[in-house]
Write a structure and sequence with these properties.
mainly alpha, 173 residues
Length: 173
């Protein structure tokens, strides 16, 4: 599963709304926007860290004279060393980061659920939004299957096709 920046506003809204509806957190009406900004900062930081990890992996692969296919393996190894949740581990990792933020923000009045309850509410929201993007990723890959993954042409065509499909679906980029 993968987090995309274009989905962050919808995820943020759904997460805060879900936590409040399930009465796991209490947030004063005046502080809802602040809590949403706190949640958004966690998601954006995850994307930044993932991007940085990917760039570092690409640099290592290039410096070792390895082809692009080694990039993902190196990225996974780096993530394991840093205890950073990638792919199937991303939901749990992000959920833990969100819980820590909710526990420490001054904008949440009270937290009524324990960590397990919070994870049980956060996980499905993240999975639902991230699975939508996985389907989009699969569609893009299907459309450009004639290109070799990892090449510059593949990267360019991937971004172009992704942008085109998002426009057709009415999603922002």
């Amino acid at each position: 599963m993968r987090l995309y920046g274009s989905k962050i506003p919808a995820i943020v809204h759904d997460l805060v709304e879900t936590l409040m509806q399930k009465e796991l957190v209490e947030v004063e009406q005046a502080n809802i926007k602040e809590v949403e900004l706190d949640v958004e900062s966690v998601l954006k930081e995850y994307l930044r860290a993932e991007r940085q990890l990917g760039e570092h992996a690409k640099d290592l692969a290039h410096s070792r004279g390895l082809d692009y296919s080694a990039h993902q393996k190196i990225k996974r190894q780096l993530a394991e060393r840093k205890k950073f949740g990638l792919y199937e581990d991303s939901v749990g990792y992000i959920a833990n980061q969100l819980i820590e933020t909710l526990l420490h923000t001054r904008h949440v009045e009270e937290i009524y659920g324990d960590d397990r309850d919070l994870r049980a509410a956060i996980g499905p929201v993240l999975k639902r939004h991230m699975a939508d993007q996985d389907k989009l990723d699969q569609e893009v890959r299907k459309r450009i299957k004639n290109l070799q993954e990892g090449t510059a042409d593949w990267e360019i065509r991937y971004q172009q096709t992704m942008a085109k499909l998002r426009r057709l679906r009415g999603e922002e980029e």
